[in-house]
């Protein structure tokens, strides 16, 4: 065996000592705000303090419970031997249930549905199946960081459009028009939104559909929180308006899943619903299925929970929304009465994104808040925001006592560090 091999003209010299293995350069722009905060939180925990976690988007860390009938369905599937690989697109009964759900959402032009390992995998597969090098996809700013992470992984330059805080965080149409180029293939909508908790108005969906038609864009409509709509009054459920219901002709992938609405984020079950003009979307759907086949399948036994979840009792949602509404109201009141803080009222999901008027960065704010008051939130810059503005994201899943304690700590911190506005 020769010790020195040749790669082209360069001799390859064997290493005599361990060298650093660097990560791919494309990953440099992948934001991972929580990681930086985790080090600070570890310091505080080592000093013997307990953290008040207003940063975790997992309902099962708090007083929310998975409906028992869907646990039984998975248990039965495992007992019945559904432990091998599933069909790549998903098991037939789950696909049929997702089609039923699409119909209830008012999506009339369904061309395909498939099951994935969480909505996250659907996002990854659908974006990967669409963009070529040199093309781009418009993503909202602020956004849920998965989108920019997938685009970075693919080596696609980021192209973010602003959400307008002065207009209840609606997409800024003028900015979308400014950012569009001949290489833009799609646009991401997150509705209800993480991190702002905002909802797109129907008029906004119609205007975005118009832009998508004009520029031949695929719309990626992330509706993972569509059953967690939080009306202002005591009325219970205000129906969510699906983009694909408003624009049946526009090529659209609606992302959904079990993590949030059915309280099983650890099962990793999500899906994509393809709608729009049939001839237009057919080649794209074939591309999506190539990738679905390559990754074999989503978790198999867990797919047996999809039908009972979507078609069975929905009682748990009444309780989930009641709790979230009360916690949203508490959060909103605190924002209203705390100097230097203002917040667009969240209307869905379990996030609030208050603005803070402070003379330093929100990252410093958040780190010092953990050190001094042991309250953990995430800085706005971790999600992207307009230059010159500062925010932080609150997850209002914890119970009222925990939230009250945390908000008292944040108010004290603001008063001590910056004084009243
Ligand atoms: C907007 C949004 N989309 C997708 C996901 C990921 O969902 P899943 O657990 O189904 O992968 C999340 C998770 O927090 C989210 O906030």
Strand content: 15-25%
Q: How helix-rich are the residues, as a percent range?
A: 25-40%
Query: What's the overall average pLDDT, rounded?
Result: 94
Q: Quickly give the structural class.
A: alpha/beta
The low-pLDDT segments are none
N/C terminus separation:
73 Å
Q: Please state the CA-atom Rg, rounded to the nearest Å.
A: 23 Å
The strands making up the biggest β-sheet line up spatially as 4-11-10-9-8-5-6-7
Report on this structure.
The chain has helices at 33-46, 68-79, 92-104, 118-128, 146-153, 173-179, 202-215, 243-246, 278-294, 306-311, 315-337, 362-373, 400-418, and strands at residues 5-7, 10-12, 52-53, 110-116, 136-141, 159-164, 170-171, 184-190, 218-222, 252-257, 270-275, 341-342, 351-352, 355-356, 375-376, 378-379, 392-395. Helix content is 38%, strand content 16%. It has 421 residues and is of the alpha/beta class. It contains 13 helices and 17 strands. α8 (243-246) links the parallel β9 (218-222) and β10. The model has no long low-confidence stretch (mean pLDDT 94). The strands form 5 sheets. The chain has an 8-stranded mixed beta sheet with strand order 4-11-10-9-8-5-6-7, sandwiched between helices. Strands 13-17-16 form a 3-stranded antiparallel beta sheet. A two-stranded antiparallel sheet has the order 1-2. It starts with a strand and ends with a helix. The protein is globular. Pyridoxal-5'-phosphate (PLP) binds next to α4. Residues 57, 118-120, 144, 190, 194, 222, 224, 257, 259, 265, 270 line the site of pyridoxal-5'-phosphate.
